[in-house]
Specification:
128 residues, alpha+beta, Arc Repressor Mutant, subunit A, elongated
């Protein structure tokens, strides 16, 4: 692809037209664009398909996630209504997380993502 430079064009502008760089105005419609994102959220949600989990159980499922990152992801999906957080006023404090009905509606998608991730792949180089 031949690049022509016009006055006022910038490298950032030319890079944004490349297929590998997401366009800033391109968004998924509705809540879809903001709900699942994040590195650990699919793993967290997949783990919750089996039922209620405490924070410690979830941290063992995603051991590379820091406590802060795991807490942040849990709060985000809770704010979107995908999971429900139940706080028990015991000593020591106990918190359980479980999927809501909206969260359960993601079951087929989460299984499909899991199956896709389990397949062996070869690395394909993308050229423009």
């Amino acid at each position: 692809m031949r690049s022509t430079r016009t006055p006022g064009s910038s490298i950032a502008h030319r890079a944004s037209s490349c297929a590998l760089v997401p366009k800033p105005n391109r968004r998924l419609s509705g809540e879809t664009g903001s709900t699942p994102g994040g590195v650990w959220k699919p793993r967290i949600l997949f783990a919750l398909l089996d039922g209620k989990k405490r924070f410690g159980e979830l941290s063992r499922i995603v051991p590379k996630a820091t406590q802060r990152m795991l807490t942040m992801h849990l709060r985000e999906v809770e704010a979107h209504g995908v999971i429900k957080r139940t706080l028990f006023a015991n000593v020591p404090l106990r918190v359980e997380h479980e999927l809501t009905e909206d969260g359960r509606s993601l079951e087929l998608v989460l299984h499909a993502l899991n199956d896709w991730g389990a397949k062996p792949r070869s690395i394909v180089e993308i050229s423009s």
